[in-house]
Amino acid sequence: MSTTSTTTSHLPPAAAPVATPAKDRPAKNRILTGDRPTGPLHLGHYFGTLQNRVRLQNEGMDLFLVIPDYQVLTDRDVADRLTEHVEGLVLDYLAAGVDPSRATIFTHSAVPALNQLLLPFLSLVSVAELGRNPTVKDEIAHSRQAAVSGLMFTYPAHQAADILFCKADLVPVGKDQEPHLELTRTIARRFNERYGPVFPQPRTLLSEAPLLLGTDGTKMSKSRGNSIALRASSDDTARLIRGAKTDAVRRISYDPEGRPEVSNLVLLTALCQGRSPYEVAAELGDGGAARLKAVATEAVNAHLAPLRARRAEYAQDLSYVRGLLRAGNARANEVAERTLAEVREAMGSPS
Ligand code: TRP
């Protein structure tokens, strides 16, 4: 696994023994990750984490995908169009190559035993620790809510439950999620120290792909209206890329620091074509922004064509999608109940 994973430096090396009891461990490595059901997944998700998940699944790992529906309420009062967004996410996963016969896709709210882990977990972290989380602070700074809810402060502990209930080994996420993974490892370690070994130390798998920017030159994000959705049509893709910010220098180069917007389109083309951005830039030479946009559009549409075709096929059969979620929820419940039983036993709760 060390050949495929990027771990942060303070983590144990892949081969190091972790405090994992032999009992109830899956034979193969387990991966868990997820996406809030707030809108369609976009190219930033795809190159940032979706591709990694599918690669690991295809290498034989056991893939769990949580759709954290409660987490939607961290930064808004109501979870809008939840069913539509949940089903849309499942379709995006299937489009990206998640194998419905192997993966476990489930919604957070459908797994009560997972949610029960939150109570002991919260007892293991201090209010100060929760308040220091930089990703939470950033979300609070950008929040449009009148007041910061208790859920906003505690959702990273919730996320630890998402990860630890199935004793995941590896969590492929974007860099902004690293503080939550840090907290997850802290909770696992403290639980094991206090009550005996139950949880493994999950490792973070960060994507090697550099961060993609949105069409306005800022971070690509569902909520900023600057993203290219996986499910967008080729015409919409062309329109979005045509409207992307660039500069007036005709010579195309790859210089993310000096020319972030132009470099972003070069990078997008390179990622879609599996080439180096320097090579793409050199080939474009003095072509200017118009040529760059035409090439980027073609690269994205060609790369996404099979994904979009697969998505459209599954979208015709939403009863299949719902059945898949039911099966995923049933499996997640079984796993969560086993873990909760171990937790209660370790804590000395009467059975
Ligand atoms: N917090 C993640 C996000 O905002 C979503 C998430 C919830 C998640 N639970 C998780 C990611 C568990 C990885 C593992 O995108």
CATH topology of the largest domain: Rossmann fold
- How far from one another are the termini? 38 Å
Global morphology: globular
- Class derived from helix and strand content: mainly alpha
Provide a quick synopsis of the model:
By secondary structure, this protein is mostly helical.
List keywords for this structure.
351 residues, mainly alpha, Rossmann fold, Tyrosyl-Transfer RNA Synthetase, 2 domains, two-stranded parallel ribbon, disordered N terminus, binds tryptophan
Overview of the structural elements:
The chain is mostly helical. The protein has two domains: 3-211 and 317-347, Rossmann fold, CATH 3.40.50.620; 222-307, Orthogonal Bundle (Tyrosyl-Transfer RNA Synthetase), CATH 1.10.240.10. It has helices spanning 43-58, 82-96, 112-116, 118-122, 127-132, 134-142, 150-164, 178-195, 234-242, 260-273, 277-284, 288-315, 318-346, and strands at 30-34, 62-67, 104-107, 170-173, 203-206. The strands form two sheets. Strands 1-2-3 form a three-stranded parallel beta sheet. A two-stranded parallel ribbon has the order 4-5. Strand 4, helix 8 and strand 5 (203-206) form a beta-alpha-beta unit. The chain is globular and about 75 Å long.
